[in-house]
Amino acid sequence: MTSPATYPIGTPGQPWGAEEKSQWLSRQTRQRSFEADVQGVIERLRSRFDVVEYGRLDYGPDSYPLLAIKSRGWRDDLPTALVTGGVHGYETSGVHGALQFVDRHAADYEGRVNLLVAPCVSPWAYERIHRWNADAIDPNRSFRENSPAHESAALMQLVAPLRDRVLVHVDLHETTDSDESEFRPALAARDGKPSEPGEIPDGFYLVDDTEHPQPGFQQAVIEAVAKVTHIAPADANGEIIGSTVVAPGVIRYPLRQLGLCAGITDAPYKTTTEVYPDSPRATPEQCNAAQSTSVCAAIDYALAHRADARGPGRV
């Protein structure tokens, strides 16, 4: 195994200070347009759905509306399905898979479930194809009280009134080759820790909740997505990204303890999807379809097993 290269910012073994973070920020450039790619699509959906601006992200000189799509016929007697994408802005199919779900499938659930979809939680990072926000903070480790990430705090505020009424939450992510080539080395450098090479799984997988596992729910999503794209196998240690594979394509994290987006509600059914867009066996269209399919499968399972859930708005 070759030794990892030294990250070009900071001193090995020393956490970044303000100077290093400023240097890192100066290297980030806009590579695509949130307004054209995401906001424009959302605007076209306004004729069929309600769109709410739940906050504004200001990283001078840039400013972005934080947008969510809601069922037009919202009913308090129905359960709620929450879909989040683009918590990590560089994970493209999370954003476009969420939008594809709304455009092609949301109407199928009218009168059965309230839908709340936040397709691009991190628009600044979307434009720069990055994991972090402009403060060098990972939003998906920041869903906690007094969050240091504006993106995370705004989404938590949006969801707070519904937190105990959400039946199912699907958080759409990707695992990419750039995780290993850029983002993990950057994380190690930022925190003053050694960079330890890992293995990127080839295929789709899910992250269940260690504290409240739902194996039947996770497997239903895996089986649906397997018809669209391939499922990631376990590595030689029986793991995916360092976690034990508990079922084909499924690992578990303590979602709330880690401050992950999928842990922000009391939903009995929750999962984090992970698509591998760099696979030679997957196209961008397949990646978007895998995300959209996972949402449909998750909602279908949750509605079919609604009687097993407990709490207001679920039964």
Could you please describe the fold and organization of this structure?
The protein is an alpha/beta fold and 315 residues long. 31% of the residues lie in helices and 19% in strands. The strands form two sheets. Strands 1-2-4-3-5-10-6-9 form an eight-stranded mixed sheet, with helices on both faces. It has a two-stranded antiparallel sheet with strand order 7-8. Strand 1 and strand 2 form a beta hairpin. It is globular. It comes from Lysobacter niastensis. InterPro entries: AstE_AspA_cat, Peptidase_M14.
Summed up:
Residues 30-315 form the Peptidase M14 domain. By secondary structure, the chain is α/β, with parallel strands linked by helices. The protein has helices spanning 18-26, 34-45, 92-105, 123-128, 150-159, 177-191, 215-225, 284-304; strands at residues 50-59, 62-70, 80-85, 114-118, 166-174, 205-209, 239-240, 243-244, 250-253, 269-275.
